[in-house]
């Protein structure tokens, strides 16, 4: 069988320069196609330029980040124990009803801007001032930054842990490991759970696992009441590296009245 010999294209370097886009040294080369239907046609090629590779890499990273964000949102929506009325909560649609709550909102905005993955927040104050609203809003902002978040009402979480004892679905260990790994955990409504030794033991396990990672707590109780409800050990652990934001005012849920 007769072998087919391919001719090399005739080439000539016509310019050398540093690409402004990628910073690589480029040889601009004139090539003449030696055979085929385009034989004799001249083309210009820039050898050494990485602009197209960089563009494709950026597109791949952007697509990967978007897939990760979509996955995190599904994770948040599936595992977070969140009331339906909080689904649409954002920083933008939180409307403070007094100066103290305006200041609290600004503190939260600053927390998001300076987020380091270690600082905790305790949102405390009277009923209906938007503590849960603000907390959900924080998770949404941080998920936009690629952070993995969970929002859990503590009373509902304790109920969820008890449900694992039936042996159906997720185990207690799997649930606690999931809580441990996320970048930000919101524990909502601390102090509203039924006060038992078991509840305080489970709360300590969560707090201990979260040591060194960001957690946001909300409560309607003052410090003395909260300490009595969750015990001194849990209260001490909660207050490690934690900034307190006081949110007192008239009931946010009844602001139209």
UniProtKB/TrEMBL annotation:
Residues 117-236 form the AAA+ ATPase domain. InterPro entries: AAA+_ATPase, IstB_ATP-bd, P-loop_NTPase. It comes from the Bacteria. One of its GO terms (biological process) is DNA replication. SMART domains: AAA (SM00382). GO terms for molecular function: ATP binding. SUPFAM superfamilies: P-loop containing nucleoside triphosphate hydrolases. This is DNA replication protein DnaC. It comes from Oceanobacillus sojae. The lineage of its organism: Bacteria, Bacillati, Bacillota, Bacilli, Bacillales.
């Amino acid at each position: 069988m007769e072998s087919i010999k391919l001719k090399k294209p005739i080439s000539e370097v016509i310019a050398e320069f540093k690409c402004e886009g990628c910073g690589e040294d480029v040889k601009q080369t004139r090539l003449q196609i030696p055979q085929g239907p385009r034989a004799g046609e001249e083309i210009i090629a820039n050898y050494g330029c990485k602009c197209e590779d960089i563009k494709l890499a950026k597109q791949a990273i952007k697509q990967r980040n978007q897939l990760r964000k979509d996955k995190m949102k599904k994770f948040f929506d599936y595992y977070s124990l969140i009331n339906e009325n909080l689904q649409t909560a954002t920083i933008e649609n939180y409307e403070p009803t007094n100066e103290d709550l305006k200041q609290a909102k600004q503190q939260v905005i600053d927390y998001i801007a300076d987020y380091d993955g270690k600082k905790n927040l305790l949102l405390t104050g009277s009923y209906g001032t938007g503590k849960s609203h603000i907390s959900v809003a924080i998770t949404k902002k941080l998920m936009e930054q690629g952070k993995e978040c969970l929002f859990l009402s503590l009373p509902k979480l304790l109920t969820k842990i008890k449900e694992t004892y039936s042996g159906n679905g997720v185990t207690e260990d799997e649930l606690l490991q999931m809580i441990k790994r996320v970048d930000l955990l919101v524990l909502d409504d601390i102090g509203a759970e039924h006060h038992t030794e078991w509840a305080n033991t489970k709360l300590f396990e969560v707090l201990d696992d979260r040591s060194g990672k960001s957690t946001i707590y909300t409560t309607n109780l003052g410090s003395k009441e909260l300490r009595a409800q969750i015990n001194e050990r849990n209260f001490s652990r909660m207050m490690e590296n934690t900034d307190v934001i006081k949110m007192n005012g008239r009931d946010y849920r009844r602001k139209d009245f």
